[in-house]
Design brief:
The complex is a heterodimer of chains A (about 220) and B (about 220). With about 220 residues, chain A is mainly α. Chain A has 8 helices and no strands.
Chain lengths: ~220, ~220
């Protein structure tokens, strides 16, 4: 169990388990994707034509709302039997790692769908669409770490969705500001060198969020 | 004579010095700023006090997670609520000052935005605390959130000023307050003011924690 190959095996098993349980409840995943698509459509109907900066703002707002919604249910209902079952599966670190990695995939999926809908309805204002995509992926790592930890916190508080939003928005705001700034750079096709410090700050923030989440998670997990 | 911890005597001494001197002491005459330059003695110490109080709150949350002593939870709670009070006072004094010098209550200055986000975080902490019925779960989970919030507040204070320029004195090409007080008159009041208001904050938090303890004992007594 403690060896590196053994831990990796457990990690893969946990992620597979996660995928399988998601597959069994396709309506939930479908609901979240539809949520994002509907939000984009409403934004499109009000804007009609997206000027560049509003494209970025609308994209990140929809991303923020649908990811809090999607990741808020990372942990199932909090009852004794289920907690005991989860704790028997793996160490808290591995368990959190499986959730965070799975959530990065989920965010990627929401990102793909939202971007596609935005491009189809709102047009493509980007000079450098590829850079926007990978900047978003770097952002998803931190976003997934923060939102997964907060999902665990709000489950302890009997899992209210309002609490999830209230707790997570101020915490992920620094991440959002950096992401919006870097997206604006991709929009205007600025030289990548101009955004280097922001990118460095984004990676540092990702690292900070992930390490704090891994340090703190064991304390909420065990009763 | 009441028996007080020495730091409380120091707070009384410094405050009785700083408040009259802050209102009446000599300040440089500057256009636009005029007498509002005195805000340095009251507005800025609120921010220093808030950061120290929030750091103390995070420290006690860490202590709680390590040894599970309830008094750490009470202290973390009290420090954060007084920190929040200091933050609100800092924001109010800053906004009034900004209306008369910058011409708007809110101008999207990075320091204004950072303080608004900090207030949101710690208000969320209060909401989280109030949503647990059992004291031990509340203490544990809110300690985790407190540490997480503090850990994301610190980078915010470094990131925001680099994203947009600030109107604050000493930023974005504006002269700092240091250039106004050539003879160090203002500094002579400013540094004691920071210490005095911080000590007052810790005193308030101490009183609040003790009040909570008394209430808890009374409640245990009556439910028995």
């Amino acid at each position: 169990m403690n060896s590196i190959p053994g831990s990796l095996h457990t990690l893969f098993t946990l992620i597979r388990l996660e995928l399988r349980s998601e597959w069994r409840q396709q309506n939930v995943l479908g609901g979240i994707l539809l949520y994002a698509a509907t939000a984009v459509f409403v934004a499109y109907m009000t804007f009609r034509i997206f000027p560049g900066p509003s494209w970025v703002a609308v994209y990140w707002l929809i991303m923020l709302f649908s990811s809090t919604h999607a990741l808020g249910r990372s942990f199932g209902p909090s009852n004794g039997a289920r907690l005991l079952f989860e704790q028997s599966l793996a160490s808290p670190g591995l368990y959190l790692a499986s959730k965070v990695i799975y959530n990065i995939f989920l965010l990627g999926l929401i990102h793909l769908l939202t971007t596609l809908c935005m491009l189809v309805w709102g047009g493509n204002p980007f000079q450098d669409l590829l850079r926007f995509s990978w900047v978003a992926v770097v952002g998803h790592i931190g976003l997934s770490g923060a939102l997964t930890l907060i999902a665990a916190i709000s489950r302890k508080a009997s899992g209210q969705t309002t609490l999830m939003v209230v707790l997570s928005f101020p915490v992920v705001l620094p991440l959002m500001l950096l992401l919006i700034r870097l997206s604006m750079h991709a929009l205007d096709g600025l030289n990548p060198v101009a955004g280097q410090t922001y990118l460095a700050q984004l990676i540092a923030l990702d690292t900070l969020i992930l390490s704090t989440a891994f340090l703190l998670f064991p304390y909420i997990w065990r009763d | 004579m009441p028996r007080l911890n020495p730091y409380k005597w120091l707070a009384i001494l410094l405050l009785s010095l700083v408040i009259p001197m802050g209102w009446m002491g000599d300040v440089p005459r500057k256009i636009i700023l005029n007498e509002s330059i005195r805000n340095l003695y009251f507005h800025v110490p609120m921010w220093f006090g808030m950061i120290f109080l929030l750091a103390a709150s995070a420290w006690h949350s860490l202590c709680y997670l390590r040894d599970r002593q309830m008094h750490h939870d009470r202290l973390a709670d009290s420090y954060s609520i007084v920190g929040l009070l200091f933050g609100l006072l800092g924001l109010t004094t800053g906004m009034i000052w900004a209306q008369f010098t910058w011409g708007a209550w809110w101008s999207g200055d990075p320091k204004q935005n950072a303080s608004a986000i900090a207030l949101l975080m710690y208000l969320a902490y209060r909401v989280l605390r109030s949503s647990f019925p059992q004291p031990d779960t509340r203490a544990r989970v809110s300690a985790v959130y407190n540490l997480f919030a503090f850990a994301s507040l610190i980078p915010l204070l470094f990131i925001l000023p680099r994203l947009t320029d600030s109107l604050h004195p000493g930023n974005g090409g504006n002269p700092g307050f240091n250039s106004y007080d050539l003879d160090g008159r203002m500094r002579l009041i400013f540094y004691p003011a920071v210490l005095a208001f911080t000590l007052l904050g810790f005193w308030l938090a101490d009183l609040y924690a003790r009040l909570r303890r008394v209430n808890q004992i009374l409640q245990e007594h009556y439910t028995r």
